[in-house]
Structure formats: structure tokens, C-alpha cells
Amino acid sequence: MKTIKILKLLLNFYLSILLTTFTLFIIGLIAYQFMGVEFLPAIIWFKVITLGVIGYYISSYKKKQFYYYQNLPKTFLWACTFSFDLSLFIALLIMMKN
């Protein structure tokens, strides 16, 4: 598959869970504001664990809709989506600190 097509499919997949990840980001942001830098590892682990739970739920709930992503492996979809989301989360927290 072409790279542009794969990126479009990944973006479409990420947009389907954007509301959930944005809600988690807001919760992490509020926790960071109240607890400070000392609790940053706990906040990041909270984000990772909740993304895993949400990933499991969406994977079982939308099992038949994965055919839309044109045989991209589920692990590839989830790995790209979660790594992008976690990187964005950490980058925004670092920018907030400064």
C-alpha cells in the first residue's frame, strides 16, 4: 500500500477515538495542574493503562468495522495510534511545564 493511503487510514482510525483520547488528555492535564511534576509518572501510567482498556473495549466492540481499514493489522493500527497519542500527550505536558 502507498504511504499516503496508510496515513489517511491511520488518521481516520485516530479520529474515530479522538473524543475518548481528548477526554483522557483533559483529565491528565487537570491532574498535572493539581498534583505537579512529582506525579507525572503516575499520570503517564494512568494514560497508558486507560488507553489499553479503551483499546480492548473498542477492539471487541467494533470488531467488524476493522475490515474498513483494508487489511491493516489491528496491532499496527493500535500501535501507531497509541504511540502518536502518547507522544502528543507527553509533548503537550512538557510544553505546559515551560
Automatic annotation (TrEMBL):
Provide this UniProt record's keywords sorted from A to Z. Membrane, Transmembrane, Transmembrane helix
Query: What residue intervals traverse the membrane?
Result: 12-33, 39-59, 75-96
Which protein is depicted?
Uncharacterized protein
